[in-house]
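Homework help board

Subject: predicted structure for assignment chain

Our instructor gave us this sequence and asked us to write out the predicted structure in token form, then describe one feature. I got the tokens but I'm not sure how to describe them. Can anyone check?
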Amino acid sequence: MYLDPDVSHAVKILIVGHFGVGKTTCIGSISEIEPLQTEEEITEASEGFDDLSGTPNKTTTTVAMDFGRLTLSDQLVLYLFGTPGQERFKEMWEELSRGALGALVLVAPERLNESFPVLDLVERFGLTYAIGVNHFDGTTDYPLDEVREALNLSDETPVVPCDVRDEQSSAQALITLVTHLMSQLG
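My token output:
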């Protein structure tokens, strides 16, 4: 993908992943504007729908989307759209995927089985993607080649470590995605 230095490009990127993987935190850590967040308290109504076993301290959840912006250069601005992680909100994904150039798929190594429905949706909507392996405190740091193998990813799909709480780490994951998108388009 050639970026004309005299033209500004705005690119829509999705930040996706299973419930509780860190999508809202990622956008919050990196957005240069106050992020739009549609967080609501988790209530008893979600019992039987949301599995909180992997995130026992989680008290809120995204119910529509998150939105942020990141300027990478004078020619490239990323508009970041975070999707809800629950299956019952997957209709939002179709709407949010329209016009998106690619997706950063966040995964938690201890809960990789929850990533397969997310990857299915990303592939169904034809989005080029990179994987950000979010490392939570107190969890095992798995080798990236093991994560790649467990998710059955092609060798071309970038897999990078990240800590979505850290601005630089989140930025590096997005830069990896943009570099991958440019190699696919150009």
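Reply (TA_rk): Your tokens look well-formed. For the description, you could write something like this. The chain has a mean pLDDT of 83. That's the kind of observation they're looking for.
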